[in-house]
Amino acid sequence: MSRSSTTLKREATLSKTAKKVKTVKKVAKKAVRKKPVKSKKNESIKAISIKQIASQIKPTVTIKRNPLGHLLMEKMFREAGFRGGISTDKKLLDAYSTDESIFSVRPQVVVQPKNRGDVEIATKVIAEQTKRFTSLSLTPRAAGTGLGGGSLTDSVVIDVCAHLNKIGEVVEKKGKITFTCEPGAMWRDVEKKLKKHNAYLPPYPASKDICSVGGSVANNAAGPDSLRYGHCADWVESIDVVLHDGHTYTIKPLTLREYKILIKQDHGHSRIAKEIFDLISKNEKEIKKNKPETAKNTAGYPLWSVMPEGVAKFKKGIGTFDLTKLISGSQGTIGIITSLTMRAEPIPSDTTLIAVSIFDLENVADSIVKLLKYNPLNVEIFDALTFDLALRNPGFFKNRISKSIYYRVMFSLYTTYHVRFRRKIPEFTILVTVDKETASEHQPEVIAKEISGQKIKARVVKSSIESEMYWQVRRGSYTLSKMQDPTKRPAAFLEDMAVPPENLSKFFVQIKRLLREFNVTAAIHGHGGNGHLHFYPLLDFTNKTTPVLVEKMADKFFETAVKFKGNICGEHNDGIIRTPHLSKIFSKKMLDIFKQAEHIFDPDDIFNPGKKVNPRFDIKETMRTNN
């Protein structure tokens, strides 16, 4: 997350979710009434976010844990002063057994911290008791919209959305816009507040209506505008994070002078900073060699970004030492975020959309490469199947488009197909957004003319209705794919591969071949400018052969991405699904360096074990059995 992202999943069936809200709330309330857990202030576990309880699917496999350790957790937390909610109610544990991924893992305990102090208490208790009960661990969970199973655990879930969701004031100072929020703050709420200042967060994931800011940063999510503006990690000013010693530290980029002051101190942050510096210094050559070639990547720990100018230059006072780059995207495996300060950007105005219709797969890569030289704000893509599904399901858009323009948008959709496309749907549609600076330097009509060819039709979209039509189809790709067969589930496990844009055409051809080989269908969309694709094969998770099929497909598809100098993890992070496959993109030595980095932060492996390094969840055995 992530998708992110992002999958407009990540568009995650908002309509379906909405229908479940009332039922879900009743389940949560009933579960809490049945077994209230009183705190010192008579507080029992409270509201769970919709996404967290929208899917109550029993886990396929419960990994055996030490029951005594988990039974003692409530008593130990309360005695230590934990004020938030704690529950072992079966219905709640089932609700936290799934996220938006294809996995199901049942936790033993769910806690909802009231404040930062509760997170510190939970961390200290787990750190102490894991010496007695090695099965104990703490896995942070936000809105539960992740696609890789990153928030799933068989131990203790710490839900940061229930109470840690405050949003601070937006600050405009010296031409810089910043804001501070807690990790459970929903992206949509932050966006509303920023909009009052004519600002936005450029790395917004496509799932921004249903995800949290903290979850997005923890997954280092990105979205359409990441082509120019990068991932969430690139917009972090500072992060407050609870480290393994149970203390909260403010992590931010440090100059050489600030770094030297820090490492003279005696605490967890100081030790970690020094040891990470030494680790990078010792292995800099290997780290640089393993940096993915693609612009987008959330695999592993980006040690190459901690001192981007290099160790030698940093020692001379050039550049910064920035551990926020490791916290962002770590999926809660090295600490738990309790607050974030991020930069924002003025909302782009006077943008122009250019729609490029590609009728031959071979022309996709070349067209995108040509477009990139104009520094577009974003370059988004969707395939013929997505457009076809939109044509066949006009009712799908009724709840997504304002009633006042719904029929006009649908008229534009069918006019485009019948008149502009002459009833022949393009293999891919590319949507290119240029800002007013680009448009003033390069006329959009000239750009469209240069891109056009025998099987390429590019045009400037001047109608706001037509523009809305294209973006509705692009954003609806994930959910539209479900309409091919409602008895199956679009499976998130191949959806995050990225290749250099110049290799996209060849990669598309291979993907289509592999989909035919495995006899599955998938609508494809993504961030073309980054060579980053999202597609979700329709699979039947009630079929006992599906886990084996998923494993075989993952192997072949991931190897294909690597073959074209790509990676398997653009913005949705590793989680359960990609952690076992990291050897496909990183050397054995680099994987060991990742393990050392994780161990420096978390020596007792108390934070979200089994993700990023040391995979411990069997992909087949933890797969969900419900569509």
Query: What is the 3D shape?
Result: globular
Q: Give the second-level CATH assignment, the architecture of the domain at 171-346.
A: 2-Layer Sandwich
**Total DSSP E strands:** 18
Rg, Cα atoms, Å: 24 Å
- Specify the CATH class of the domain at 171-346: Alpha Beta
State mean pLDDT (0 to 100 scale): 90
Strand content: 5-15%
Which topology of the domain at 171-346 does CATH recognise? Uridine Diphospho-n-acetylenolpyruvylglucosamine Reductase, domain 3
Largest sheet at a glance?
6 strands, antiparallel
Summed up, the helix count is 23
Structural class, judged by helices and strands? Answer: alpha+beta
Multimeric organization: single chain
Alpha-carbon distance between the two ends: 21 Å
Helix content: 25-40%
**Which stretches are poorly predicted, pLDDT < 50 over at least 5 residues?**
1-63
Structural notes for this entry:
- It is a single chain.
- With 627 residues, the protein is an alpha+beta fold.
- Among the domains are: 171-346, Uridine Diphospho-n-acetylenolpyruvylglucosamine Reductase, domain 3 (2-Layer Sandwich); 352-484, Alpha-Beta Plaits, CATH 3.30.70.2190; 489-573, Alpha-Beta Plaits (2-Layer Sandwich).
- Helix content is 37%, strand content 14%.
- It contains 23 helices and 18 strands.
- The strands form four sheets. Strands 5, 6, 7, 8, 9 and 10 form a six-stranded antiparallel beta sheet that branches. The protein has a six-stranded antiparallel beta sheet with strand order 14-11-13-12-16-17, with helices on both faces.
- Helix 3 crosses helix 5 and helix 20 runs antiparallel to helix 21.
- The radius of gyration is 24 Å and the shape is globular.
- The chain starts with 13 loop residues before the first helix and ends in a 26-residue tail after the last helix.
